[in-house]
Amino acid sequence: VAIGILATMYMQSDPSMGLISKIQQHLPLRYGLKATPPPGWGCGFPDLPKRSNSQGQTMLSALVFSTLLWLSLILALRFCLKLLLSYHHWMFEQHGRVSNTTKVWVSLVRLFSSRKPLLYSYQTSLPHLPVPAISDTLSRYLESVRPLLTDPEFKRMTNLAGQFESNLGNRLQRYLKLKALWATNYVSDWWEEYIYLRSRGPIMVNSNYYGMDFLYVTPTPVQAARAGNTITALLLYRRKVNREDRVPGTVIPLCAAQCERMFNTTRTPGTETDVLQHWQDSEFVAVYNKGRFFRLWVYRAGRLLSPREIEYQIQRILDDPSPPLPGEERLGALTAGDRVPWAQIRKQYFSSGVNKRSLDAIERAAFFVTLDDEEQGMKGDDPAGNLDRYAKSLLHGKCYDRWFDKSFSIVIYKNGKSGLNAEHSWADAPTVAHLWEYTLATDAFQLGYTEDGHCKGEVERSLPHPQRLSWEIPSEVQAQASSSLAVAQALADDVDCHVFPFREFGKGRIKKCRISPDAFIQISLQLAYFRDRGGFCLTYEASMTRLFREGRTETVRSCSNESCAFIRALEGREDQCRRLFRKASEKHQNLYRMAMTGAGIDRHLFCLYVVSKYLGVESAFLKEVLSEPWRLSTSQTPVQQMELFDLKNHPDFISLGGGFGPVADDGYGVSYIIVGEDMINFHVSSKHSCKETDSHRFGAQISRALQDIMTLLSADAKTTSSSSSSSSSSSSSSSSSSKDKKLL
User: Residue limits of the Choline/carnitine acyltransferase domain (predicted)?
Assistant: First the structure.
């Protein structure tokens, strides 16, 4: 911009329309001479000081104007892009029917977007999450609870909502709008603090979640080799994470704020609230094996070690015969129990000396690695039972052989199977799923293994040994570790996990029925719960709000009037089931779209509740709404990088997805991943202590519900195709008869 301005001035033209002259008049004078812009460079022969001073001031004025012009252009570009990205009508259009407005909008987004954006290129251009009108939120809330309440209960709740809106609600709304004016996102900071960091119970099972390896394939049976490739793939992802995140298959950017704390991050305990600590970089990982902690440097002189070198170092750890120090083996149990005792112990015994240095090595590590001495996966004579045990192992392990405070931990089993356990406060599952997809694909298809199962590459034998961490753990710390382990073990033993691949059909057959796969599965889950418990319940489905800056999640209340009407009709064997199902499917899709575009229910009510607590006022309505249990909590694990997996040539490399623990003591947690065209993997969790829930029973109900609905839709498709074929045959016969008449 500066060169262009100076070039036009050299051609004796003023592109600033007099602004450069005005800027020059306000510049400080040198030699006490009046700053008069020359008529043209090189014209006339004034005295040398005056000439050099005038030309210098003209140059400086042109540079100031160029800078202001450049800043104005950048800000205008960002403002235009923010206005464009605030348009969400494209999401509500029917599949295959794109309006002209949306087509123009896509063209403009491409025009204003960078061709090769970096991770944070669009952050300042993303729109802020809007605060919905309180009347709209209350109306949507009442609609969502209508199928769950009797007439008297619904009338009472309607009165509570009306009283809240007319009295306290509008006051809270004003404060919330005030926060939305200065905050980047009016939800995310409170959501992170009050839902995650202020929770004083164990984060293991209750908050952390897991991701699994390939279902049918283990790339290598060599534990050290699998660890070498997995660690390398994760560090390659960290190097490449500066690429921009987009909605898959579109030009629409997503907020990338969650990627910032993926590596080198730890949740540290506090007495009232935990804190997320993030370091800029880390050149080592923390490793746990057979009760011992190690620091493994993965860079040497700025060079990332090769997979073969990391395997060599991992094998050194596995071959190390040294026993654990007193209290070292079960030290990780402190991160699995209640948060307050861990915070107190950490402050008292890990604030100085050798314990602080060793704890810093774990907390500042890029991530945590557990070299497990067990074998896991779908193997042996009981593959179904082994999958369930595999899920429990990743969710909680032995309750002391994971460091649950790390942003994520990698588990490498003795037979080469792998998995992941992630802490929830720093990011949501899609961000971690993106990381894990890349890791699995890079491990299997890019890095690869030799014929004998080892990593590829050469080894520099002069590598220093992995550093064994030292500890001085007194009896008080050991006693607290045992106490935390008892709490964690009781929680782990109570979890009932069931993982099963549904192979009868997948999204390919569902799409042929012109139904959204997610809507199909969610309505099937409603039917399964109705058959399992004999009624309906408040259902949570997580959707993202990353179309907005620093957006995280919003709740889709999947149990709707339309889905309940369909299920009652199906169980009553009524004739209008197909019509009701399509109506329920369309309703679910609309609910999901509204949640993604900032018109959800629960985050708005949650923030109003937080404002009421800040102001010290009580609301019977908000208190009752936020105390309602989510007895069916569901989440879809999205497949975001299918192009990395060559399923045509390698159909066995199918991901199992991941899962989480139950949210309610008397409820179910259900996670599912739609893999390819012909499979859906389910992860079901519940608690043994509740006699009314059973994960295996519910899993069987899910399979039955999916097949029953598909049978219903297939019969509808056959009826439609037969009627269309009969109508086409009748039309062809009538046209042939008319031809015959003409011939006669």
Answer: 129-703
- pTM for this structure? 0.86
Give the HSE-up count for residue 217: Cα atoms under 13 Å, Cβ half-sphere: 14
Amino acid, single-letter form, for residue 244:
E
Rounded Cα gap, residues 269 and 196, in angstroms: 12
Closest residue by Cα to residue 324 from 290, 349, 350: 290
**In the numeric block, which tokens belong to residue 486?**
């008892």
> Both tokens of residue 169?
């609600």
Alpha carbon distances (Å) from 698 to 10, 83, 532 = 79, 46, 7
Nearest to 430 by CA among 552, 334, 253, 602: 552
pLDDT digits (tens, 9 = 90+) for 318-339: 999 999 999 999 999 999 999 9
- The answer to whether the Cα torsion of 46, 50, 51, 54 is positive or negative is negative
In this structure, of 102-111, 326-335, 337-346, 439-448, the range with the lowest mean pLDDT score is 102-111
According to DSSP, the residues that pair with 209 across neighbouring strands are 422, 660
Q: Which fold does the domain 206-245+258-496 belong to in CATH?
A: Chloramphenicol Acetyltransferase (3.30.559)
Closest alpha carbon to 345 in 294, 287, 271, 274: 271
Question: Mean per-residue pLDDT for 539-548?
Answer: 94
CA distance 126 to 256: 10
What is the mean predicted confidence (pLDDT) over 279-286?
94
The 3 state secondary structure assigned to 537-577 is CCEEEEEECCCCCCCCEEEEECCCHHHHHHHHHHHCCCCCH
The answer for 96, left when phi > 0, alpha when psi is -120 to 50, beta otherwise, is left
DSSP category for residue 684:
E
Residue 399 contacts residue 495 (beta carbons within 8 Å): no
User: How many residues appear in the chain?
Assistant: 744
By the 8 A CB rule, do 561 and 537 touch?
Answer: no
Tokens 């991160």 found at: 335
Q: With bands split at pLDDT 50, 70 and 90, how would you rate the model's confidence at 731?
A: very low
Residues with Cβ within 8 Å of residue 262, at least 6 apart in sequence: 238, 241, 407, 408, 426, 427, 431, 432, 435
pLDDT at 114 (0 to 100): 67
Question: Which residue spans of the chain are classified as CATH 3.30.559.70?
Answer: 206-245+258-496
User: Of 362, 350, 392, 393, which is closest to residue 267 (Cα–Cα)?
Assistant: 362
Tokens of 443: 């491990």
Kindly give the pairing relationship between strand 467-468 and strand 408-412: unpaired
Determine phi and psi for 357, rounding to 5 degrees.
-65, -40
Alpha helices, DSSP H, located in 495-516: 507-512
Residue 457: which region, alpha, beta or left (left: phi > 0; alpha: psi -120 to 50)? left
Residue pointed to by tokens 């403002």: 79
Phi, psi of 242 (to 5 degrees): -80, 10
Of the candidates 219, 593, 630, the residue with the CA atom closest to the CA atom of residue 442: 219
